[in-house]
Amino acid sequence: MEFELKWVAWEITRRCNLHCVHCRSSSELEVAGHPDFPTEEAYRVLDDIATFAKPVIVLSGGEPLLRADVFDIAAYGTEKGFRMCLATNGTLVTPETCERMKAAGIRMVSLSLDGADAGVHDDFRQQPGAFDGTLNAARLFREHGIPFLVNSSFTKRNQDQIPKVYRLAKELGATAWYMFMIVPTGRGEDILEELISPEDYEEILNWHYEMERGEDELLVRPTCAPHYYRVRLQRAKEAGERVRHRTLKFSTGGAKGCLAGQLIALIDVDGNVLPCSYFPKAAGNIRKQSLREIWNESPLFKELRDFSKYKGRCGSCEYVAVCGGCRARAYAVTGDYLDEEPFCGYVPRRLRAGEGASKPGG
Ligand code: SF4
Ligand code: SF4
């Protein structure tokens, strides 16, 4: 596998107008100690990235539309040849925003939808009116010809909504629907007990497999459910079928389950470079080093790319190279990001045969 930077989530502000239960950045309308950086710094970051990679860049937050210069940053990135995208909660989208998005060359927008009705979505987002905001944004994007994908986050609180949310995403005219089971980080740590159990997780991934087999319009993928890559292979093998693989050009190509620090990275509002949006450990800081240096030299990234260092069941697993387990969940639950994925119930062949059982966590 080549470890080329293909996708960057960039937290251009930590401010947000919502207060979601699962928020990875614990965003608020004012975030003390984590101010927005100046526009000039944003341009420097884009210049820096352009020296060695041409990733998809997702302007994210917080809520990126709270930054007055968001479209200047997007336009600069577009000029540099990046495929610029934007992740929004949708509540601030207006017809004018849509026109400015198009003018700035935004290629894809992601919207959040965590429930199939206002009661569930607004409860999850802790904001009355958030559901209507998302639906309104989807309508505006359709009217303005802006492609959008729907991201849906689930915990025990809303897991029964999964099939309904999928159907609604399709009705809204989304290009893709990404189902995401919360990774505990940021404010999400408070909801560890709300996380979907490993047994239900497995069942939901199997549901997704069935759904994906019959889905020809909407692109679908469980985000950060690396063991879906194992489930897919197992199910296809059982049925004697080939694994069907459709992918969005604004994604990483789906080379493998967990891509943290391998094809993707997050740059936070303070310039820290992290393996992904849910992995609260920095590999370096772009105010002190170039991104190229961090990407190529950081010990953390090197460790994440060395699958032979993985421990527990992941370390013994025949699927490690296609799955890899969620390193952020391992970190949140065990304190060791190389440990086994705590939300996968699979027992690798080697361990069933009694080999490798003395490995830590195995
Ligand atoms: S044990 Fe780890 S590598 Fe194997 S399928 Fe589960 S999460 Fe993936
Ligand atoms: S560690 Fe990997 S699977 Fe987990 S949230 Fe990050 S990218 Fe996703």
Automatic annotation (TrEMBL):
Cofactor dependency: [4Fe-4S] cluster
Pfam families named among the record's database cross-references: Radical_SAM (PF04055), SPASM (PF13186)
Name of the protein in question: Radical SAM protein
GO MF terms held by the record: 4 iron, 4 sulfur cluster binding; catalytic activity; metal ion binding
Assigned keywords, A-Z: 4Fe-4S, Iron, Iron-sulfur, Metal-binding, S-adenosyl-L-methionine
Chain ranges of the Radical SAM core domain: 2-215
SMART domains membership: Elp3 (SM00729)
InterPro entries in the cross-refs: 4Fe4S-binding_SPASM_dom, Aldolase_TIM, Elp3/MiaA/NifB-like_rSAM, PqqE-like, Radical_SAM_PqqE_MftC-like, rSAM, rSAM_sf
